[in-house]
C-alpha cells in the first residue's frame, strides 16, 4: 500500500488528498455493494431453509449468480413514471434514500485506524445521515401521487421518527460510558475494563452493562430499516409496497439497495457500539477486522431470522412500543447509568 | 379550520391480501376504517345458470371449482340433493369414503385459510409449512381421483371408484437420489388407506408446530385478539355458519345437529370460541383440523374392515361395470342411455346442506323430471360472511381489515359462483 501511495502521489501533486479520498470511498462502496448483493442472496437462502424450501439455486453454481441476474434485470427495466407524479421529486426520493445509506459509511471504523473520516462527532453524523434517508421515503411517497405510496410515506414519517428517539437515547448511554462521540474511541473504550484485563474482553463490551440499551438499539435498528416485524412502511399485504409501489427498474433498485445497505450499517453499528467492534472476544486471539465482520453477520442473521418468524406489528402497536415502552425505559436507564457512573461502584473510571 | 375529508382507498381487486378478486372500497379516517364496501362479482361464472344446460352428472365438476380450496366437499350437497330426489340408498362404504374425503378437504381448507391469514398478518413462514402438509392431501386426492385438485369424485349414488390399493411412489431421477426417494416413500409403501392413516397420525404433530409459531406469539395475539368481534346474537342475525359462528360461541354444526351420511356413528368434538374475535376463530379452525384427523382415523379403521361396493347398483343412476356391460344387452342399454341422456330425476324440489369447511354449503334443486335441473341455487357460507365485512371492519385499522378478510376465509369462486 505504502509503495503504491508513494508512486501515485507525485502524479497528482496538489490534487492528491482528493484523489486519495476518492480511492478510499471506492474502496468502501464497491465491497459494500457486493455485500448488499450477496446479503439479498443470503437472505433468500436462509429464509428458504427455514421455510422448508431450497431458495435460489438455478443461476450459476449453487445459485451464486442470482443477485447479478437480478441486478441486470433491474438495470434494463423501464422506469415508469406515473402521469401525475411530481417528476423531479419522484427521482430525488430514491436517490436520497440510497445516497444517505452510503454516505453514513464515511465514519465507520473497520479496524483500528481504518476509517474514511475519523471525525469527533461521528455518532452525530451517523444519526444525521440516517435521518435524512427518511426524507427519501417521504418524498417518494408524496411524489408518486398514489394513495398506497402516500400511506407508506405517512407511516414511515411516524415510525422512523419515533424510533430515532429511542435509538438516540440508547446511544446517549453509550456516549456517557465512553465519554466520546468518536466511533474509534467508543470501540477502544470497550477494550478496557476488569474483564478485558483478565483476557475476557467479551464481558467488558458495552452489551453487558447496557444490556437493555443493546436490545432497544437492536430492535430500533430493525424498525429503522423497515424490516419485519416492523415493516409496516412496506406492509406487503396492507399497502402493497408503500412508498415503492410506483417505482420500477433502477429507481426501485435504489430503494432496495439503500434498505440493505442500511441493514448492514445497523449491524455494523450495533457491533461497534455494543459488541466491541473489531476487538477480539478473548485475550489470546488478535483484534481484527474479521471480528467486526463476524459480529455484523451474526446480527444480520438475526434480522433474517426475525423476518422468517414473526408476524407484522400493526402501525399503532409499533408506535405504542416505541413511545410507551422504549422511550421511558431508555430515560430510566439513562438516569441509572448516570448515577452508576457517579457512584463509587462505577466500572468506567 | 379546513374541511377534512375522509380518504377513499380502493383495496383490490388486485391486492396481495384480497384473497382472489375482492374489491373493497375503504373509506378511511387516517388509518381507521370508517366504511368498508365490498364489491363482488369479478369471478362470476354463472355456475347456477350453466347447470341448467348440463345433465345432472355434468355439473359435478363445476362444484369442485366453486370453493377451490375445499374441492370434494363441494360436490357432496349436490349429489346428496340428487339422491334425495331419486330416493336411492348409498352403499355404506361410499358414505364412509365421502365422509373421509370431506374431512380431508376440511383440513385442506383450514390449512390454506390459516396459512394465508398468517401470511396476510406478516408471518410468511406459516403458509409454507401448511403447504407442506397440503401437498400430502393433494397426493391423496391425486391417487384416488386422478386429479390433484378438482377431483369430480362423488357421484349420485356413491363415489366414482374404490380407493386404490397402491399409493404412487417417487422414483429416482436427476434431482432425487435413492436416499431422498426412500425417505419420501416411507409412508407410501402400502395402500392409500395406509398413507391416509399415516397422515392422520402425524398431522396433529404438525398442528403443534403451527401453534408453536402462532398461538402464543405476542405479535400474533396483538394482531388477532379483539379484532372483528361478533356477538353470538349478531352472528345468528348475520346468518353466519361454520367456524365464524362457532367462534362466537354458538355450538352449531350440521354434522351433529342434522347428521348426514355416517357422522352419527363417528366420535368428534365441536370446538367453540368465547369472545367471537379473530383469535377465537383461529383457535376453532386449529381444533377442527385436529378433530378432522380424528374422524379420518375412524373412517380408515372402518374402511379397512368393510370392503364392498362404493356405488349403487341401480343402473338407472350409476353405470354398470364394463365387464357386465360387454356381456349383457340390458346393461349395454343402460350404459348407452346413461352416457347419452344421463339420469332422469323425478320432478320435485329439494335442499341438501352439509357442514362445509367454511360453514353451511347447500344446494337447492328444482327438477321437472328431465335429464337436467330446472333450476339450481347454491348457498355458500363465504358470501354471507363477506356481507358482514362492513360491520366487522368498522372502527378498526387497515391492517385489521386484512386480518378480517383472512378470518372470514373467503374464496371468490364460492362468493361469486
Description of the structure:
- The complex is a heterodimer of chains A (349) and B (417).
- Chain A has 349 residues and is mostly helical.
- Chain A has 13 helices and no strands.
- Chain A is globular, with a radius of gyration of 21 Å.
- Chain B has 417 residues and is mainly alpha-helical.
- Helix content of chain B is 49%, strand content 11%.
- A 3-stranded antiparallel beta sheet of chain B has the order 1-2-3.
- The longest helix of chain B is centred in the N-terminal third of the chain and has 30 residues, at 92-121.
- Chain B is globular.
- Chain A binds chain B through residues 47, 50-53, 147-148, 151, 228-229, 231-232, 235-240, 308-317, and chain B through 7, 9-10, 15-17, 31, 118-125, 128-129, 132, 213-214, 217, 219-220, 222-223, 397-400, 402.
Distance between the termini of chain A: 38 Å
Share in helix of chain B: 40-55%
Largest sheet of chain B: 3 strands, antiparallel
Strand content of chain A: under 5%
Number of helices of chain B: 18
What is the alpha-carbon Rg of chain B in Å?
23 Å
- Return the average pLDDT of chain A rounded to an integer: 84
User: Ends of chain B: how far apart?
Assistant: 48 Å
Order of helices and strands of chain A: HHHHHHHHHHHHH
Arithmetic mean of pLDDT of chain B? 89
Largest interface (C-beta under 8 Å): A-B, 28 and 30 residues
